[in-house]
Write a structure and sequence with these properties.
The protein is an alpha+beta fold. The chain folds into four domains: 7-26 and 445-606, Up-down Bundle (Multidrug efflux transporter AcrB transmembrane fold); 32-107, 2-Layer Sandwich (Alpha-Beta Plaits); 140-221, Hypothetical Protein, Haloacid Dehalogenase-like Hydrolase, Chain: A, domain 2 (2-Layer Sandwich), CATH 3.30.1240; 282-433, Gyrase A, domain 2 (2-Layer Sandwich). The chain has helices at residues 7-24, 48-60, 85-96, 112-115, 126-129, 140-161, 183-196, 219-244, 269-276, 344-355, 416-428, 445-499, 505-518, 520-534, 539-571, 575-606, and strands at residues 32-39, 65-70, 74-79, 100-107, 123-124, 131-138, 168-172, 175-179, 200-205, 212-217, 250-254, 258-264, 281-286, 297-301, 309-313, 318-319, 323-330, 336-342, 361-378, 381-399, 407-410, 435-443, 502-503. Helix 2 (48-60) crosses helix 3, helix 12 (445-499) crosses helix 13 (505-518) and helix 15 packs antiparallel against helix 16. Residues 230-287 form the Protein translocase subunit SecDF P1 domain. InterPro entries: SecD, SecD-TM, SecD/SecF_arch_bac, SecD/SecF_CS, SecD_1st, SecD_SecF_C, SecD_SecF_C_bact, SecDF_P1_head.
Length: 616
């Protein structure tokens, strides 16, 4: 019989629509404007009396509190009005002082019964939700210096293993200069080193006790190093951002030596900047023996006690690059520590160094690259100059009791927060070169709310115009198309929520475009039905032919658009991807609603019964 669906098709449509309804509902519950309080050092806690003082102060200021939630690490105060966030933050900061970080936040308010279905609202992008935008610059000079230091250490080890005497090694610009006691030692060293280190040009200088070998890194090697540094830093920053748990962050290269990081929804900029911008790394070195020549040793002080110092070997056993995993824990005395697991190469090097030095001290050296700013006068104007510098300090100095392998622990840390951050940095990998903050912008939730309002208004206007057109043009069938259009919008929202996709302003533009495209299929079908009716076909046959014969055209048109959306998603970044996601989802859902939902509504209304006139 024409224009009748089997029961299973109706059930399928109902199930799909119910799932779409459940997973779109969380978006009706907007996030609560909140103020988050956390410890600046990890040691401070907020007691009940402080919390009571905060609540009294906010109520005295006429700020309505919706709820207060607290756990071991933070306190979250939900507010009724977003306009009260800034005032609340300032009042709370005045009460608690500098031991705490008071940040703006947006707290999810999805009901528990929806959360039981794992339903959650769409993730909003930086332009809608607010967050932080960092522009970072990679210090390429420091990357080159670090690579030369590693090579110099490897050269010294090779010379010692071959018993070739050298006096000193110096690093300047792109060169490593090695001093020897004789020309014979220099020539032997050149033959040995040139076979292993092919990224350098070699030049002999001086004679007698002034004999030197100058190694200059080639232009190609420098270029490859710079590309490696920026790509490695991109990978490391992405790992760190993943550790922060930020939804749909953006970490991408900008130009030859800059990286853009955008963290939607992050309001605690202090913590984000501390983790993202940290350039910490570790080095494991042996303590120097009393008879070690001065040129092979360096002196460092302890981080927690600068009056204590230790002389270490210049050669590094391993660095943080060899760490495969790291986690925070506590030792038997309740003090924080970091448990370290090394990769295969790192474990081999550690075992080789420790098994022959049992009873000797091994140090853990903490290295951090920072910048300081100072104001200078240039041409009569004050100019801010950024000066990079490096801090090195000992975390621990312990005696090697037995040969170490792939697993061991680091103690001597000041607080659980320091241990947690060190473990995070080691897990995510060390930076190939220091990075410095060139620009920092914070987008507040109020600006995001304004963007959302404008975006919703554009969707409403676009949808209203389409609804009116379909009603005027196709009458009863226009009602079917409008119902399908509303269901299509619901399913797009549900699909984005299920996929965890991020909605941005370009994404809203994609939704508006989807609204216009969603009725295209219905227009093709309805015009085909009209054409068949004008050709003298019966009403039931015209409806059937309209859906059957328009099917191929609809599929072809939507597949080509879907392919374009997939290409945009594949090669695009940031906003372009947001547009492609909503467009792709809209195409898929509009196919379902136009071909199945409207057909079901038409079948229920006209199928299997005599119809004298068709309102189309």
């Amino acid at each position: 019989m024409l224009n009748r669906y089997p029961l299973w098709k109706y059930l399928l449509i109902v199930i799909v629509l119910l799932v779409g309804l459940v997973y779109s509902l969380p978006n009706l519950y907007p996030e609560d404007p909140s103020v988050q309080i956390s410890s600046a050092s990890g040691d401070a806690t907020i007691d009940d009396s402080q919390l009571e003082r905060i609540q009294e102060s906010l109520l005295d200021a006429g700020i309505d509190i919706k709820a207060v939630e607290s756990d071991d690490t933070r306190v979250l105060i939900r507010l009724e009005d977003s306009d009260d966030q800034l005032r609340s933050r300032d009042r709370i900061a005045d009460i608690l002082g500098g031991d705490y970080v008071v940040a703006l936040n947006l707290a999810e308010s999805t009901p528990a019964w929806l959360q039981s279905f794992a339903a959650s609202p769409m993730t909003l992008g930086l332009d809608l939700r607010g967050g932080v935008h960092f522009l970072l610059e990679v210090d390429m000079d420091a990357a080159l210096t670090q690579r030369l230091e590693v090579n110099a250490s490897a050269v010294r080890e090779q010379l010692r293993s071959e018993r070739i005497r050298y006096r000193s090694t110096d690093i300047e610009d792109r060169t490593i200069s090695i001093a020897f006691t004789s020309e014979e030692d220099r020539d032997n060293a050149r033959r040995l080193i040139s076979r292993e280190f092919r990224d350098f040009d070699y030049q002999s200088a001086g004679d007698g006790r002034g004999a030197r070998l100058v190694m200059t890194m080639t232009d190609q090697a420098v270029s490859e190093l710079q590309d490696y540094a920026i790509n490695q830093n991109l990978t490391t920053l992405r790992n760190r951002v993943d550790e922060l748990g930020v939804a749909e962050p953006m970490v991408q290269r900008q130009g030859p030596d800059r990286i853009v990081v955008e963290l939607p929804g992050v309001q605690d900029t202090v913590a984000a900047k501390r983790v993202v911008g940290a350039t910490a790394n570790l080095e494991f070195r042996l303590e120097a023996r009393p008879d070690t020549p001065d040129m092979e040793t360096e002196t460092f002080s302890f981080r927690n006690d600068e009056s204590r110092t230790a002389d270490l070997m210049r050669d590094v056993i391993i660095s943080g690059d060899s760490v495969s995993s790291a986690s925070r824990s506590f030792d038997e005395n309740g003090r924080p520590q970091v448990n370290i697991n090394l990769d295969g190469t790192g474990g081999t090097l550690m075992n080789r160094a420790t098994r022959t030095n049992i009873g000797r001290n091994m140090a853990v050296l903490f290295i951090e690259h920072k910048t300081r700013e100072r104001t200078v006068m240039e041409d009569g104007e004050e100019v801010t100059v950024r000066e990079p510098y490096t801090e090195r300090g000992l975390i621990s100095l312990a005696t090697i009791q037995s040969a170490l392998g792939n697993s061991f622990r680091i103690t001597g840390l000041d607080s659980p927060t320091e241990a947690a951050e060190l473990a995070l940095l080691l897990r995510s990998g060390s930076l190939a070169a220091p990075i410095y903050f060139v620009q920092e912008r914070t987008i507040g939730p109020s600006l995001g709310a304004e963007n959302i309002q404008r975006g919703v208004l554009s969707v409403q206007i676009g949808m209203l115009l389409v609804l009116l057109f379909m009603l005027v043009r196709y009458k009863v069938f226009g009602i079917f198309a409008n119902v399908a259009l509303a269901l299509n919008l619901m399913m797009v929202v549900a699909g984005m929520s299920l996929l965890g996709a991020t909605l941005t302003l370009p994404g809203i533009a994609g939704i508006v475009l989807t609204i216009g495209m969603a009725v295209d299929a219905n227009v093709l079908i309805y015009e085909r039905i009209r054409e068949e009716l004008r050709g003298g076909m019966s009403i039931q046959q015209a409806i059937h032919a309209g859906y059957e014969r328009a099917f191929t055209s609809i599929v072809d048109a939507n597949i080509t658009t879907l392919l374009v959306a997939i290409i945009l998603f594949s090669i695009g970044t940031g906003p372009v991807k947001g547009f492609a996601v909503t467009l792709s989802l809209g195409i898929i859902t509009s196919m379902f609603t136009a071909l199945m939902v409207t057909r079901a509504l038409v079948n229920l209304t006209y199928g299997g019964r005599p119809v004298k006139k068709l309102w189309i």
